[in-house]
Amino acid sequence: MPFQLFILLSLLCALLPLHHGAPGPDGSAPDPAHYRERVKAMFYHAYDSYLENAFPFDELRPLTCDGHDTWGSFSLTLIDALDTLLILGNVSEFQRVVEVLQDNVDFDIDVNASVFETNIRVVGGLLSAHLLSKKAGVEVEAGWPCSGPLLRMAEEAARKLLPAFQTPTGMPYGTVNLLHGVNLGETPVTCTAGIGTFIVEFATLSSLTGDPVFEDVARVALMRLWESRSDIGLVGNHIDVLTGKWVAQDAGIGAGVDSYFEYLVKGAILLQDKKLMAMFLEYNKAIRNYTRFDDWYLWVQMYKGTVSMPVFQSLEAYWPGLQSLIGDIDNAMRTFLNYYTVWKQFGGLPEFYNIPQGYTVEKREGYPLRPELIESAMYLYRATGDPTLLELGRDAVESIEKISKVECGFATIKDLRDHKLDNRMESFFLAETVKYLYLLFDPTNFIHNNGSTFDTVITPYGECILGAGGYIFNTEAHPIDPAALHCCRRLKEEQWEVEDLMREFYSLKRNRSRFRKKTVSSGPWEPPAGPGTLFSPENYDQVREKKPAKQKIPLLSCPSQPFTSKLALLGQVFLDSS
After folding, report:
1. Of the residues 184, 311, 316, 523, which has the fewest C-beta atoms closer than 10 A?
2. Can you give the pTM of this predicted structure?
3. Is 372 annotated in the active site?
4. Is residue 117 flagged as an active site residue?
5. Which parts of 369-486 fold into alpha helices (H)?
6. Which residue among 59, 80, 117, 375 is the active-site one?
7. Catalytic pick from 262, 316, 372, 375?
8. What is the pLDDT of residues 554-564, one digit of tens each?
9. Residue 475 annotated as lining a ligand binding site
10. pLDDT, tens digit, 9 for 90 and up, residues 31-87
11. Known active-site residue 258
């Protein structure tokens, strides 16, 4: 090579920008500002493609540039992407979509819908958007956040799911017809996550509307699972909701079980519930004792603890993030680094990975652009600031853009070995994957608020504080402001007080009548059945006894935590003993 040409090429190389996927020359972490803009561009490429080619269908088919209904014909991608729009700063599109959803979404339809998916995507997405509406500049109605069109939509959708909980065990069916209820002959076998993933959305709904039925059914389902665990403290994968007998007895932290454990932790934080946290910590002991091997988590037989599947599932990658929420950072990082090696091996996480063989499992080689490893990176980066976590974010952006980007959005990767694509873009790509990537690279986002700013809101029940931080993400990455649950609580307490007064009144009236020797009914007073009431009058006393103790919460103050776990505004719960 001529010397002059060598000098010219050297100068050109010096002037060219570094490869976006590499750290700087000093080994520095990826530039957050650069990747933040890359992630935003990814979102709009996918979002605009959905609007142009797939709306009003649920999801985009990116290879054929059209749409299809997948989970119930709700324009699901639009609901799932709504709060992501605000996190990216697009208030005008948020406002437009709120109007579109009010005009176009109808839940009174003859469709068989997944109870689990409808809850986490539709109910969760609408609740989150409702609580973020004021921040997005939407003109909210009087009484917000205790009322509003998106809240009414969320309540309507949730009521459509309530018939699924009418089982002898209180554990719900997996599918419900939105018009007719549970179909005759519907299978009673439901996965564990499909039973234990309601407390975040349903407790929020009960707190905002004043109707306790949602939280009640969610708590009953959680308790039935807890009571069904094996003698060694593990739960299986699928259970018969009519008999309470386990059908699939594989125990692990992945598919079919995952968000049950997640909601015990997040429900404990959201509701300041000591019992839910204690339940998770007991499970955590059993999981460490029987399923953890060298910071991997295997599948075992729930009664014996013997290994049944030595595989890592991509859905398990949420676990390090969950560990960070209870302050177990060291274990979380070790497990995260194991999972990250798999990502680096394939440019994504295959659905199943055989740990002893170090390779994919047949027919489970795909990567549908799942968020779980990125979710864990976001949580751990907030806790540690470790630049390795930004490197995962960088690798995710580079891999997704290189492998799955097509003209009409981003396609599911059917096979990570040869990069074949599938004709689907799941709504969680915009709800979760892009959102967690953006939050990883945006340290000043309002979601990460440390309490230094907040909004004071006047409600019919007094003043409350919103937007101070500590958001709880549901399992579809829809953020719930925990402070909002206190804004409307007086409505719920007053409802119970009225019921108590009515009981006392009827009791006095009955006693007075007996004293006068008048003929009276000997049965107990039966409260009028309100909308959505699932409990028979004879069981009403039992249900009412479960209401939480009343807490007098001073206005303009944050309620103090009544148990040992402490919620930090940076998104962690640390135990006192840590």
Report:
1. 184
2. 0.83
3. yes
4. yes
5. 372-384, 387-404, 428, 434-440
6. 117
7. 372
8. 333 333 333 33
9. yes
10. 999 999 999 999 999 999 999 999 999 999 999 999 999 998 999 999 999 999 999
11. yes
